[in-house]
Amino acid sequence: MGKAYQDGIGVARDPEQAVAWHRKAAESGFADSQSCLGVAFLKGQGTNQDFMAATNWIYKAVGAGSLTAEYQLGLLLIKGDGLPQDLGAGVRWMLEAAGRGNADAQYEAASLYLKGEGVPRSEAESFRWCRKAAEQGFAAAEETLSGLYRDGKGVEKDMAESVRWLHLAAEHGRPSAQFALGLSYVTGDGQPKDVAEAVRWFRLAAEQGSTEGQNSLGYAYATGTGVAQDLAEAYKWYSLALADGNLHAEVNLRNLLTRLTETQISVGKARAALYSPKSPDVRFDPALFK
After folding, report:
1. Of the given ranges (68-82, 87-101, 147-161), which has the lowest mean pLDDT?
2. Which of 75, 78, 120, 130 has CA atoms 20 to 30 A from the CA of 198?
3. Does the residue 239 lie in any domain?
4. Does the residue 65 lie in any domain?
5. How far apart, in Å, are the Cα atoms of 103 and each of 130, 225, 263?
């Protein structure tokens, strides 16, 4: 139940209820709940921030063999967040968790090797760990792996593989990947041009709050590219992107306003007021990774 309240699975998300349920399970020796409870104390989510309690529960979870706790302990030691910084020990715990299959740790290991932080810098090792995380359906790693294939970092450049991993990251609900995928359909970079498909991915990104997606979707409606022209809808998306600081949307909205009637502006404002970011529509198919 702690995980359900923590992530809003089948119930409304409630950090305080999550902590209460995790505490019950943690006190009964359940390692993953001990780890989750430690993170809650660390971040002050659903309870008061308490670094001593956080450290205590995370170490208990590590002692019980929790991979998540090993990852969290590694992160705390690397960053010196609530504990004295110890890069060497942090990297050891991170690589231990990564080697035992924790996707978060594998992705962090990729970052460590790319930056040469606590380990010798190696693009090949960075790629290897990133691929391991991506093969577990870790969306951030999938998107990063796409970039590594695109740029030929740690692996031979391969646009087909780059696009394949970008598709997976987008399908797993990552807004930045959805926007990038939409852009690739516009430019034909790595796949055939398809403006209708580009708009579909821009919309998914926009609905999750991506300002790049919102600006691009606004442009599609303003110009009738891939969708029927709708200037009020263009106003909606441009204004939402601008509200979150997208400067391209500011220019586009300024140009659009010269073409709008007062009625269209009112309709656009009303539509924007109804907007609420959607949660990712995550679809995971293990067969895609075989």
Report:
1. 68-82
2. 130
3. no
4. yes
5. 9, 39, 51
